[in-house]
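Rotation project, supervised by the postdoc (A.L.). Task for the rotation student: set up a whole-complex structure prediction and record inputs and outputs verbatim in this book. Inputs entered:
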Amino acid sequence: MGSETRGPQGFETAIHSGPNTVAEFHQRRSVVSQLRQLLHQTPSIVPLIVLVAATIVFGIILGGRFFSAYAMTLILQQVAITGIVGAAQSLVILTAGIDLSVGAIMVLTSVVMGQFTFRYGLPPFFSVACGIGVGALIGYINGFLVARVKLPPFIVTLGMWQIVLATNFLYSANETIRAQDIETQAPLLQVFGETVRVGGAVLTYGAIMMVVIVCVLAYVLRHTAWGRHVYAVGDDPVAAELAGVQVKRILISVYVLAGIICALAGWALIGRLGSVSPTSGQFENINSITAVVIGGISLFGGRGSIIGMLFGALIVGVFSLGLGMYGTDPQWTYLLIGMLIIAAVAVDQWIRKAAA
Amino acid sequence: MEPILKARGLVKRYGKVTALDHCDFDLYPGEVLAVIGDNGAGKSSLIKALSGAVRADEGQIFLDGKEMHFSSPLDAREAGIETVYQNLALSPALSIADNMFLGREIRRSGFMGKYLRTLDRKTMGRLAREKLNDLGLLTIQNIDQPVETLSGGQRQGVAVARAAAFGSRVVIMDEPTAALGVKESRKVLELIQDVRARGLPIVLISHNMPHVFEVADRVHVHRLGKRLCVIDPKLATMSDAVALMTGAKQPEASMEAA
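Outputs recorded:
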């Protein structure tokens, strides 16, 4: 053996006589495949199209009643809580997890904010901080169990959902704090229920907070290293780890941040209800997952945008308000939302084929 | 000459299975060292120990004569050891540039970078393109396209370019040609020679004997969890190498590398 084994082997000499250009495909790209490519790059387009279409259809049916600034902003107010919780849910789902405890965290933190103020007489500002701290702590426990103990997120948060909800009822003794009491003694708790009027548009601070949270997270996910790492972890955690992403730290930070955002939702919930009620917001975990799924974020992680989630939440809002104004049985809303969820996941699967 | 990367007495057990049994390893500056061995010989465990992906139960690893304790791939990377894993360790949905800079992103200067932690996509894109051009991977037009839209060979190229761009001491490549066609394999072998020409030593794990004998300066034969011998590909034949790694033959002094 010796020099003849150095360099390309005999059978490879043919390579050099072959064409050296990059393969070019004169593919007649059909409209459908181009559409799929576009959707693959910007998955939030689908919910945007559905949102605009739904708005136009209801606008035509219901006329000016629906197309008013008031109705439009009413939708924003109604989806504020779902949108904020959905932002937390989006973060977790982007890491290929799921958080079933979001609604329970929201209710418990709102109860903590109320009870700390009224039972212990703490200043409202301090109670709010404690509520946010409780949200972060529960998020940390979720994150620790998922990242370090390596339990499936579904199971961890299913358990946490029950634990937090039970804690909520035990701690609050199922007692509601009345709106009048909050209004006179701790108006800070209701701050997100206050409104800004611009012409016919009525915006609550809660709705504004939702938009701000979504915009901030959209920026963070797209333009910071942490955001890119969240996507990488959701995409392929093993690859991310080997490529130098601190997967466990990212996962824990995502759950903690989700807990904090849920606590902010709890604060906004007091504003929306006026009172602190331990029985409210029971379905927010399901609503938030609905918004995320309709918004085109993949349940398998790593794909989708948080703006899509906002569109998803707004679609639900448009359907509820539109069908409500039309005077149908509210069950029709649920029926249509159910169909949308299944359609959204079907579209997600179809888009994924563009990559394969 | 002092080895740049040296391991002594590495032991790694998984339950009752001993993957590494007091294994030694030496990589000298500027060389391509191939590691060959039968399936289950412990090649992967050796590489994982060297690249920080697993922690050995016993033994020592020295880089430039200094003892290292890697507890994660990040530690090894900070020490200048870059690894191209068999599964490539790329995130399919992220862009080429994002993947190349994963875990070592560049932030913008000034307020935006310092307080808002904004990524400097422009610089990262430019550097990524430069690195790919350096290695002759010009066929990638768009640095912002997701990695999942690339062919197997192009993905391999991105992974190799990432390692070559950031590896300052050692580049480890695990089966870099296993999933590739003839033409892409040729490209990767050329890449290996380019990287060596720039003075970086390379550890190449491969099952492909022609490739090993073509690019390696020395061949580390791994058997039953330890180094059986190191042979010189100019003195030994491919059938010798196969006989050694399967245990059909005992090492002879005539083919051992100096």
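Student's summary: The radius of gyration of chain B is 19 Å.
Supervisor addendum: Chain B has nine helices and ten strands.
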